[in-house]
Specification:
Two copies of one chain form a homodimer. With about 400 residues, chain A is an alpha/beta fold. In chain A, about 35% of the residues lie in helices and about 15% in strands. Chain A contains 13 helices and twelve strands. In chain A, helix 8 links the parallel strand 7 and strand 8. In chain A, helix 1 (about 20-35) runs antiparallel to helix 3, helix 1 (about 20-35) packs parallel to helix 12 (about 310-325) and helix 4 crosses helix 5 (about 110-125). The model of chain A has no long low-confidence stretch (mean pLDDT about 95). At the A-B interface, strand 3, helix 3, helix 4, helix 6 and helix 10 of A face strand 3, helix 3, helix 4, helix 6 and helix 10 of B.
């Protein structure tokens, strides 16, 4: 295989947007522009779909100043796609890379995107085309293997923690049952992040249900009742992907219509799970004030809730990808490894170790009861949330003796 | 009537919590504590319910430092209630005030709460009991008459604007139809605030539906189709309280079960409206990617999204209430009046002018098409959102000529 020609570099963004995905984009673009080998940095519109359609922007013509402002803007600045390329699709990608003499391909995305990079990398090798292909990690689900955590997750986790901190205060003021449904099809990390909104011992969420443990309706109802009996209120965090003992998603079980995306995944959005759980509690337990929210797109796209640690790391994985590509000798995926409390380092990991694999929450992060997290999880997550986390304070209520009711 | 004895002052919080309701509480408490006439400042737990149950905390025993921290914490620190007292209930309130020799009663809340203050005030007069009763405004709905705006609304509006700014970016990256359902039973102010998340001319929300205009399903579908045809994507803001031409709430029309609260109001929460509108678009227009979120409790309780202007004003209405009570000669409600761009002043307004009345959006704030806001509304709302609003930036995409597809 001849030497790689780095004069044209391509970067694209795939999958669900995150609060910091543009940090990775800008990290890759600015770092590429530092290398004299690189003449042009292209960006593909809407991920791999833009690649096969040859829809490229010349990011070499962007000002550094605007790139820095875009880096701080959430969601995918190049646009994204839900396409999950098969071999034929990847062959199309490869043809376009070849036609445009692209020597280096960076794809920012989750496990599906890393699989795309893996297939394109193989395709290039099979054709003897000198290509360097590097995957840059991103997913709010935090479900990439090898990585300690993935860029995008800390900011989404921060949103969830702050949302539950507020929901808990609201529920304290107007007691009842509150359910917050959080994104997470197979991995419960984001739902578990709700626990970081707790401060005082009786704070919610009092119950946390994640896909890693079977969701048993009877146990759920017993948990809610026990919490209501104890505190007169109950705040619940539930993953949209919770399943029963037979691995049937509760959302699918209760939903009337089932919608599937191009990956064959059932669409778990909408408020159905929240509303059905609400009805269940009202019917079976008789509590009147039961409220439920589905956090939906807010948790991944809300402008103005971001972890500075996440921003920094998302920027660095973009930069490191370029360094590994140009100074290194192999394709791969940039992975994040924790080295201290709190520090990280980056490595280039073979694509096969991450591609199309899903990581779920380890047992040590889940309480034996199955509906709470451990201190090990808090220790894991807290530094990722970054600086300036809001804090909640309470009145220390000194009771005044009753007069009419005659109590002391 | 004898002279008012200010030695015991009572403050309570009613209705839905807001991001800044504790600023008003702390403003009233700290200002009361400055007056040498005041010996004890009581707080009632859970609003008027705590009053009738004689559940009081002695806030004179709170440290100033902790009060300041509580002021910055969202939701009602004393707890709240949905009780809407009738005459009998108000007589109970009055009996307790009398028994505890309370000379001054401050109630922080919306139009229902101001009506409670009005009835209690009349009851005291009828009994010749020297009481000073002052209502302190609060509501995210912004629906109090006389006021330019109400504390709590600016912070909730900021959340909605930021949420739509993010949803718009997400929808740009992964095009389709996005619906965000916003709180607002009769007044569309909070839903209209979504317009403040727009920056570029093609930004969403592209369509805004508020209760002040009839929601006609056919027009809605035509609006969505026209936007999709024009931009290939569509972001929609809808008030939970939108009604058809016969004033039937669309949520009630489409919902299977109807839940009413103690005020006889239909509960509009849950994801039903969002999901039903989603189904409508899919069925009638055939668009596949239609997503909807109900912002629910996040918009009023999210920790970490607050307007500094709102904080300041909420604090001041609490302080002014005490000054009007002690230095003034009548009961009333503190009202906010705009005096410049941007400055406000406060007045004590007769309770009858605000109590149990509802203000909706004036025509000058609504576009003639009925599904957008005017610049007059933007001019009205922008200063309320406060400093440090996040801003979104875009790449200026310089297209690269196609090679395989042979286009220039």
């Amino acid at each position: 295989m001849s030497k790689i020609d780095f004069s044209k570099v391509l970067v694209a963004q795939g999958g669900g947007p995150t609060a910091v995905i543009n940090q990775s984009l800008v990290g890759a673009v600015l770092e590429s522009r530092k290398f004299r080998e690189v003449e042009r940095v292209y960006g593909a519109f809407h991920g791999v779909r833009g690649v096969v359609n040859e829809e490229f922007a010349d990011l070499t013509q962007e000002t550094t100043h605007n790139l820095e402002l875009v880096a701080g803007t959430p969601s995918s600045a190049l646009g994204s796609t839900r396409d999950k390329p098969d071999l034929k699709y990847c062959q199309e990608i490869f043809k376009v890379l070849q036609a445009h003499k692209i020597g280096c391909f960076f794809y920012i995305g989750g496990n599906d995107s890393s699989d795309t990079v893996r297939i394109v990398s193989q395709e290039a090798k099979a054709h003897g085309y000198p290509l360097r292909a590097v995957h840059i990690p991103k997913t709010i689900d935090n479900d990439l293997t090898v990585n300690d955590h993935t860029p995008g997750f800390p900011s989404a986790a921060r949103f969830v923690a702050q949302a539950f901190a507020g929901a808990n205060l609201d529920n304290w003021a107007l007691p009842g049952v509150y359910i917050g449904v959080v994104m997470g099809r197979h991995a419960g990390f984001l739902t578990a992040a709700s626990a970081l909104g707790k401060k005082f011992p009786d704070d919610g969420p009092h119950l946390i249900y994640i896909p890693e443990r079977p969701f048993v309706v009877e146990k759920f109802l017993a948990d809610v009742k026990a919490t209501m009996d104890r505190l007169g209120r109950c705040v619940i965090a539930v993953s949209e992907g919770v399943c029963d003992e037979n691995h049937t998603p509760i959302a699918e079980k209760l939903a009337k219509q089932v919608e599937r995306d191009d990956h064959g995944n059932v669409h778990l959005g909408g408020g159905a799970l929240a509303d059905n759980l609400t009805d269940l509690i009202k019917e079976k337990l008789g509590f009147k004030r039961v409220r439920a929210d589905t956090f939906g797109y807010l948790q991944r796209s809300f402008v103005g809730c971001v972890s500075d640690v996440d921003q920094r790391e998302a920027r660095e994985v973009g930069e490191k990808a370029v360094q590994y590509a140009i100074w290194g000798d192999r394709d791969g995926t940039v992975t994040i490894h924790r080295t201290g409390f709190y520090s990280v380092d980056y490595r280039l990991t073979p694509l096969e170790e991450v591609a199309a694999k899903t990581r779920t929450m380890p047992d040590e992060f889940i309480s034996p009861c199955g509906s709470d997290v451990t201190d090990a999880f808090r220790y894991y997550l807290r530094p990722l949330l970054g600086s300036g986390m809001p804090d909640a304070y309470r009145l220390r209520l000194a009771r005044v003796p009753k007069i009419l009711k005659g109590q002391g």
